Structure formats: C-alpha cells, structure tokens
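User: I'm putting together notes for a lab meeting next week and I want to include a structural view of one of the chains we've been expressing. I don't have a solved structure, so I'd like a prediction I can at least talk through. The sequence is below, exactly as it appears in our construct file.
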Amino acid sequence: MTLSKSASLPTQYSLDYIKFDGSAKKGEQESPAKLEFSELSKGTYVIVGTPAAFSPPCSEQHLPGYVTGLKDFSSKGAKIIVLSKDNLFANYAWAQKFGVSDKQDQIIFASDTNLKFSKDVGLSTTEFDPLGEVAARYAIVVKDGVITYVAKEKAITEVTVSSAEKVLNEL
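Assistant: Thanks for the context. Below is the predicted structure for the 171-residue chain, given as structure tokens.
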C-alpha cells in the first residue's frame, strides 16, 4: 500500500510510546501507552519518520526544527508525532534529550514497532546497512484522517521535503 495526497490515513496501525503524566517518582518509569491511528481521524497531525533515535542527522538536522517550531505548529492546530523503529524507551529518552517529554499535547516520540506502519506503506529503507531496515526520513500531514501531504527524502541523510520549514508551509 502506498500513501497519497487526498487518501485516508489507514487506521489499523498503532504506535508505542511512554506516556508522560508526571506521576512517576524519581527513578521510576512513566507508563507505556499506544497511539492508535484511528485517533488521528479528528484534528491535524504531522507524522515525522526518522531512521534512528539519537543519530546525528535526526538529532542535529531533522528534529531541531520541529522542537523549536512547536509553537508554530501548535498555532496551526497541528500535533507532531515523531516515529522511529527504536523501542519506546529509547524514544522517550530522545524526547527527554530535546526537553519535550512533558509536552505530549504538542509532540510525541513513538515507536513504529517492527516497522509495521512504515514498511506496509513503503516508507522504510535498508539504505544504511548498519541500521538494518528502518523508517525512511519522511513527513505526512493528516487533517481529520485525510492525508494532505506526504513526502519521503531521496536519501536518509537529506532533510528537505520532510523539514519542519517545508511541512509548516504545507499546513
């Protein structure tokens, strides 16, 4: 299955993440949770595909624009979902590194466990052998369950069509 503009976002998928609710005491872990794609049928969402948590291109080139632009995305009514195949604990630590683990009303770092979504919709890659198969670098804008923008980078080291600036212009 390939995603395209004006198509409905498939709803049979879910992502895993650590839900920050502030109840965990120091040294304890917050609670695992699922984000069901069926929940994306109301509102505006930006799904940002990333090959690997903590990798230099993702952490230094791709995601900083989304993190520093949170207010801009929020002002347009958009919530950001950053996904990678990394486990939910690694993604939560990545969100903590960016200082946004407590801003889940604006941005969630989630795991596409076993690449179920990215692989099924043709947005995975084996381009960089040491990583194995990972999510490609991509961006999808979903408004009330309908895809209004979908773009995949030609190479996982590029940040052009999936950049925060480009996606903001598409909202």
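A couple of points you could mention at the meeting. The beta strands are 14-19, 31-36, 44-49, 78-84, 107-111, 124-125, 134-135, 138-143, 146-152. The mean pLDDT is 92.

User: Perfect, that's what I needed.
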